[in-house]
Design goal:
alpha+beta, Alpha,alpha-trehalose phosphorylase, transferase, 9-stranded antiparallel beta sheet, alpha,alpha-trehalose phosphorylase activity, glycosyltransferase, globular, 34 strands, Beta-galactosidase, Chain A, domain 5, 5-stranded antiparallel beta sheet
Length: 751
C-alpha cells in the first residue's frame, strides 16, 4: 500500500517537476529523474548529477561592498553526465516526442529503491518495441549509479543500435528571475581527462577555483552478440552497440571525488568497478531492498485512513534518506541531492526540521550530522572575529564547507539564531542518547562557543539581557531588537552550557576541558545570569509574546486583499516594503513556543498562535508543519489536519510552484514532525519522553516506532486507544499525557 510514486505526464511543466520527484540518491550521490534518451529540442531540462559537498567557489559581486561581507560563496556542482543512452530502432531514434506512444508509465519504488519506465513505442516507420528502463543509486556501494534497459521488438525489427554517452562538459542550471536559484556561474568545471582504460570509459573533471576532481568510471554491456565501437573526444565518450533484439543493456557508473579519495580518484573508481564486475542488476536490487527493509522497519509511519497522505509521508521519508549525508564531509542541503535550488547549501533547516527524524529513528545518521557541524567550528570562530566578536563562534547562515555564502546579510548573516538552533540539536541528541562521550568530546565545546557568542552579542540593560539587531526565522522582518525566537533559544543555549559545565565538574572531567577552552567559573556564572535575565518581549494587552520590540507597532499587511499572483511576496515586493509591516513569511514566535513550550503558559501560546496565524503567508515551506504541530497541541483539530495536508504533499502537488528546482527537504522533515510531535504529541525533555496523543478523526489508526536511549518503542493509535510496546531494550518509564507508565519489553500497554 502506497509504496510507489507513478507518473505518466509528458508536458514540459510536469516533466521538470518529475525530474525532482523521481530523483534518486544515497546521501553521497544524487541523480535527477531525467530521461536517458533526452527530450525534444525545445525542452529545457534540468539535467543533473550531484555529489554531496562537491563544490566550487565563486566571487560575490557587490555594487557597494561593506566590511565583512563574504567575498566568495560555495556552489554545489552539476557533475559528469552519465545518464545518456540513445536507442535507434531500424534507424529511427527513440523519443517519447516522436512516433506513437502506445503506453508509458514511470514509477519510483519507495520500498525497493529504484525507478523504472515502461514504454510501448511505435516508431515513425511503424516498428514497435517494448522497453523497460530501470535505474538505481546504490545505498550499499555509494559511488554507483546503475542503469538497466530491456528492449523487446514486437514486430520485424532488423537492428537495434544503442549509444551510451558520458559527457564531462556540463553546467549548472540558472534562472535570473528567481533569487532562490543561482543566476550565474553556471560553468564551473573543465574536463581534465577522457579516455578508455581497462575496458572502462573514464572522465575526470576539475573545478575552476577549488581544484577538486571528480571522476566517472563507466562499464557497459549487452547480453547479445553484435558489433561494438567507441568514440572519444576531449570531453565526451560514446560506446555504440548494434544488435538484433530482444536485448538487455546495462550501464554501471561509478563516481569518486577528491574530497573523499584524494589524488587517486580515477584509480579508486576503477577499483570499485572491478569489485562490481560480477554483480548483476538483480543482485544490486536485492542489496537495495535489504537496506531499505532495515530502514523502513523502524522508520515507516503507517496511516490507516488516507492513502494520499500515506503516500506523502513515505515519499518524504524516502527522499530524506536519499539526501542525508552519511560521511563526515557532508550534511543535508535544503534541496537535498534532487536539484540546484539554494546552490546545495546547508541551513538551520538541518538541525530544527530534519535531524529530529533521524535522531528518533536512526541516531547514527543524526550523530554524523552533528559531527559535520562540529567540523565547521573553527570556521565559525573565524566568522565571529570577522563580524567583530572577540569571543565565541558564529555559524554561517548558508554554507557547504564552513564559509558564509549568504550575500544578503539582513536575511542571512543576521540570523544569529542558527547558533542556538545548532546548540538545541546537540542538547536534543544528548537527551535522546545520553551519550556522555559525545557530550565531553563535542557538545561541551559547541555549547561553550555559542554561549560566548551570545554574551558578546547581547548586553544587560535595566536588569535584563537583550540581543539587538538580529533577524529571526521570519525573513519578512529583518534586523530587529529582541526577536523572541532568538532570545528564547539563546536562553536555552546559555543555561544548558551552564548545566553541561556543572555536570562535567561533578564527574571530574572539567579541568582538562577548562584548560583547553580557557574556561573559568566566572564566565559560566555570566552565562547563567544572562540566561536567567533574558528579555522575552511580551504584550500585556494582547497577552502574547511580541515577535520583537517593534513588530506590534507596525501596520498590518492586508493579506486578504493581496492578489494571489503576488505570492510569494518576496518575488513581488522590495524587502523594505515587507519589513515595514506586520507580515510573516513563516512561523517565528510560534516556532519558539513549539521548541521551548515550557517558556510560556498555555494561554500565551494559544493567543500567540491565533495572532500570528492571521498575518503569516507561509511563503516558506518551513511554516505549515509548525502551525500543524501547535494546532494539535492547542486542540485545533481541523487546522492541524489542514496544515498537515499541505505539508505532507507539498512537493508531490508542487504547492510552492518551484519543485522543479529540487525538493523541500525541511518540509519533508516537518511532515514527520507534524505526525510524531503533532498528532502523537511527542516531546523530549530532561525528564524523558512524554506523549500527548490525539489521533485525527479522519484516520482509523496511526503506527510508528521511536528509538530512545537504546530502546525501540512501538506506538499505535486507534480511535481513543493508544498502545505502547517496548520492542527492544531495558524497561523504561515515559509519560502518557500526565500519567507515568512503565514499559517492559514485549508487553503492550493500552491507554
Amino acid at each position: 500500500m502506497a509504496w510507489a510514486i507513478t507518473k505518466s505526464e509528458l508536458d514540459h511543466k510536469n516533466l521538470l517537476i518529475n525530474e525532482s520527484l523521481l530523483s534518486l540518491g544515497n546521501g553521497y550521490l544524487g541523480v535527477r529523474g531525467n530521461f536517458e534518451e533526452g527530450y525534444d529540442s525545445d525542452f529545457q531540462s534540468i539535467r543533473g548529477t550531484y555529489i554531496n559537498a562537491f563544490h566550487d567557489e565563486t566571487e560575490i559581486t557587490y555594487g557597494e561592498k561593506q566590511y565583512a561581507f563574504p567575498d566568495k560563496q560555495q556552489k554545489l556542482l552539476n557533475v559528469i553526465d552519465a545518464q545518456t543512452v540513445q536507442i535507434y530502432v531500424d534507424g529511427d531514434r527513440f523519443s517519447l516526442f516522436s512516433g506513437e506512444i502506445v503506453s508509458f508509465e514511470r514509477t519510483l519504488h519507495l520500498d525497493k529503491g529504484y525507478s523504472e519506465r515502461k514504454i510501448h513505442w511505435k516508431s515513425p516507420n511503424g516498428k514497435e518495441v517494448q522497453m523497460e528502463f530501470r535505474r538505481l543509486v546504490s545505498f550499499v556501494t555509494r559511488e554507483l549509479f546503475a542503469i538497466d534497459i530491456k528492449i523487446e521488438p514486437l514486430n520485424d525489427v532488423n537492428e537495434l543500435k544503442i549509444i551510451s554517452r558520458v559527457d564531462g562538459d556540463v553546467s549548472n542550471f540558472t534562472d535570473e528571475n528567481d533569487p532562490r536559484v543561482a543566476s550565474g556561474h553556471a560553468k564551473r568545471l573543465f574536463v581534465s581527462e577522457a579516455k578508455m582504460t581497462e575496458g572502462f570509459t573514464a572522465i575526470k573533471d576539475t573545478t575552476f577555483e577549488t581544484q577538486l576532481d571528480v571522476t566517472c568510471i563507466t562499464s557497459t554491456c549487452v547480453d547479445k552478440e553484435g558489433s561494438y565501437n567507441n568514440y572519444i573526444s576531449d570531453s565526451v565518450i560514446e560506446e555504440e552497440y548494434k544488435v538484433k533484439g530482444p536485448v538487455r543493456f546495462s550501464k554501471y557508473n561509478v563516481y569518486t571525488d577528491s574530497l573523499r579519495y584524494g589524488e587517486n580518484v580515477l584509480e579508486e573508481g576503477i577499483k570499485i568497478q572491478h569489485r562490481l564486475a560480477n554483480l548483476s542488476f538483480e543482485e544490486l536490487m536485492s542489496e537495495q531492498k535489504e537496506y531499505l527493509d532495515n530502514f523502513w522497519k523502524l522508520t515507516d509511519v503507517k496511516i490507516d485512513g488516507d492513502k494520499s497522505l500515506q503516500e506523502g509521508i513515505r515519499f518524504n521519508l524516502y527522499q530524506l534518506l536519499q539526501s542525508v549525508g552519511k560521511d563526515p564531509i557532508s550534511n543535508i542541503a535544503s534541496k537535498g541531492l534532487s536539484g540546484e535550488g539554494y546552490e546545495g547549501h546547508y541551513f538551520w533547516d538541518t538541525e530544527i526540521y530534519m535531524l529530529p527524524v533521524f535522531l528518533m529513528t536512526n541516531p547514527a545518521i543524526a550523530k554524523n550530522l552533528l559531527l559535520h557541524r562540529y567540523s565547521l567550528l573553527n570556521s565559525a570562530r573565524e566568522r565571529a572575529r570577522e563580524m567583530g566578536h572577540e569571543n565565541g563562534a558564529l555559524f554561517p547562515w548558508r554554507t557547504i564547507t564552513g564559509g558564509e555564502s549568504s550575500a544578503f546579510f539582513p536575511a542571512g548573516t543576521a540570523q544569529y539564531h542558527i547558533n542556538a538552533d545548532i546548540a538545541y540539536s546537540y542538547i536534543q541528541y544528548y537527551l535522546v542518547t545520553r551519550d556522555e562521550e559525545f557530550l565531553k568530546d563535542y557538545m561541551v565545546e559547541v555549547l561553550v562557543e555559542t554561549a560566548r557568542l551570545w554574551i558578546d552579542t547581547g548586553h544587560f540593560k535595566d536588569g535584563q539581557f537583550r540581543i539587538d539587531d538580529v533577524t529571526g526565522p521570519d525573513e519578512y522582518t529583518c534586523i530587529v531588537n529582541n526577536n523572541y525566537y532568538t532570545n528564547v533559544m539563546a536562553k536555552h543555549n546559555l543555561l544548558w552550557a551552564v548545566k553541561v559545565f556543572r555536570h562535567l565538574k561533578e564527574t571530574n572531567k572539567i579541568e582538562e576541558l577548562s584548560n583547553q577552552l580557557n574556561l573559568n567559573a566566572d564566565e559560566v556564572e555570566l552565562w547563567e545570569e544572562a540566561g536567567e535575565k533574558m528579555f522575552l518581549p511580551y504584550d500585556e494587552n494582547l497577552g502574547i509574546h511580541a515577535q520583537d520590540d517593534s513588530f506590534l507597532k507596525k501596520a498590518r499587511w492586508n493579506l486578504e486583499n493581496t492578489n494571489k499572483e503576488n505570492f510569494p511576496l518576496l518575488l513581488h515586493y522590495h524587502p523594505l516594503t515587507l519589513y515595514r509591516y506586520q507580515v510573516c513569511k513563516q512561523a517565528d514566535t510560534v516556532l519558539g513556543h513549539f521548541l521551548l513550550e515550557d517558556e510560556a503558559d498555555i494561554d500565551t501560546i494559544r493567543q500567540s498562535y491565533d495572532y500570528y496565524e492571521a498575518i503569516t503567508t507561509h511563503d516558506s515551506s518551513l511554516s505549515y508543519c509548525v502551525f500543524s504541530i501547535m494546532a494539535s497541541k492547542l486542540g485545533y483539530e481541523k487546522k492541524a489536519y489542514s496544515y498537515f495536508n499541505k505539508t505532507a504533499r507539498l512537493d508531490l502537488e508542487n504547492r510552492h510552484g518551484n519543485t522543479k528546482d529540487g525538493l523541500h527537504m525541511a518540509n519533508m522533515g516537518g511532515a514527520w514532525l507534524a505526525i510524531v510531535y503533532g498528532f502523537a504529541g511527542l516531546r523530549v525533555k530532561e525528564s524523558g519522553l512524554s506523549m500527548h496523543p490525539r489521533l485525527p478523526k479522519q484516520w482509523n489508526a496511526l503506527e510508528f516506532h521511536l528509538r530512545f536511549r537504546g530502546r525501540v518503542i512501538q506506538i499505535k493509535m486507534e480511535n481513543d486507544i493508544v498502545c505502547y510496546t517496548l520492542v527492544e531494550g531495558n524497561n523504561l518509564t515515559i509519560q502518557h499525557r500526565e500519567e507515568e507508565i512503565h514499559l517492559e519489553q514485549g508487553i503492550e500497554i493500552r491507554k
